[in-house]
Amino acid sequence: MSDNILSQEEIEALLRGETLEPAEPSEPAKINIDEYLTDMEQDALGEIGNISFGSSATALSALLGQKVDITTPTISLIKRDELDKEFTHPYVAIKVEFTEGISGSNVLVIKQSDAAIIADLMLGGDGTSPNDELGDIHLSAVQEAMNQMMGSSATSMSTIFNKKVDISPPTIDLMNVQLDQGIEHIPAQNLLIRVSFNIKVGELIDSNIMQLYPIEFGKKLVSSLMGEEEAATATEIEEIPSTPEPVSIPQQPEREYQQPASQPDPVYHAPQQGSPTSRPTQPQVQVQQAEFASFQSPSLSKEESNNLNMLLDIPLQVTVELGRTKRSVKEILEMSGGSIIELDKLAGEPVDILVNNRYIAKGEVVVIDENFGVRITDILSQMDRINNLR
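Request: output the structure for the sequence above.
Response:
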C-alpha cells in the first residue's frame, strides 16, 4: 500500500478475509569493506579515529561539565542512495572542511535528541529536560561544541601526521533523510566510509556519533599517517635535473677588461661574446664536519651537592592557563550562571603552562582518572626556564 491507495493484490486479500500487515522496511545490503579497503587501511583509520576523538572527548567534557567517554570506533561502508534506510530518525549534520595539512571534508552525524541535550548543557541547563525543537540558539550551541571537538581532533591529527592540520568553522543543519532535509551536507560520492563511535555523556547520553567521508579522503588520511605524501615530495625533488636548461641571455656590448699582472686569475670571468650560455663558475668551497671538545661535568663536593638538593626541593606553583580576556565592570556585573566568556585562545590551541606565573611550556588538556591533566607538547630549554624564573 502506497499513498493510502490499495493495490489490486491487497484488495483481493481483503476480499478473502486476510489481514494486511504493513511491509517492513528493507534493510540496506551489507557492503564488503575488504573489497575497497585493506586490513591495514581499516586499522589505520580506526587508530586515527581513536586518537583524534579521544582528545575530542576531553574537550567536550570540559565544555559540558560532564564525564564524556567515546569508545573505539568501528569502520563500515554505506551507500549515499541508501541513507534513508540507515538514518531513520531526525539527526543533526555538522560539516567540517580541512583547510591545511589535509584536503577534504567530512560530516559528523548525531541524533537530534542527543544534540538537544548537548545544547541544553551548553546553555546552562542540566540536560534532563531539553527542548525538542532546536532553534538557532540551540544549533549555535551544538555548533560551538562540535567546533571545540574537531579543533581538538585536528590538534591530535597534527601530532600523529607530524604536520599542521587545521579546519574551517563547521556548518550545522538539521538532517531528516526521509524528508530530503539537510542531506546536501553529505559528500556527493555514493560510497562513503562510516566511522561509528559510542558516546556517553554522564547519565544523559548513551548513543552513537558517526563520521562520514568519501573513500578517497580515507585513503588520503592513511597516506598522511604512513608518510607517503612526504616521500613522494622528496622523490620529486630528487628527480629535478641538476643542470638547468640553457637560457638565452641578451648579448651585452663588449667591454675591455684588463687584468693586473700582479694578481692571480680572478674567479669570475665576464661572458664572451657569442657564448650566450656561458655562466660564471662558482668557487670551490670545502665543507668539513664541526669538531667539538668533549665536555666533562664538573665534580661537586658533598657540601655543594647538599646545597643543590636544598634548591631542588623548593616548591613552585604550577598553573595551566586556558586563555585570557578583558571585560568592563558593567559586563562583569551582568554575568550570571550560563554566561559564556570568550577567551583570546583559538579552538584547539595549546594551553600555556606557567611556573610562578612565568611561562615555561605549552600543552594539551587530558583526563587522567576523571581528573584534568596537561600533556606537555612544547617546552623551553632548561636555561630559558631558569631565566624566566628569576
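The domain at 29-228 is CATH 3.40.1550.10 (Chemotaxis protein chec).
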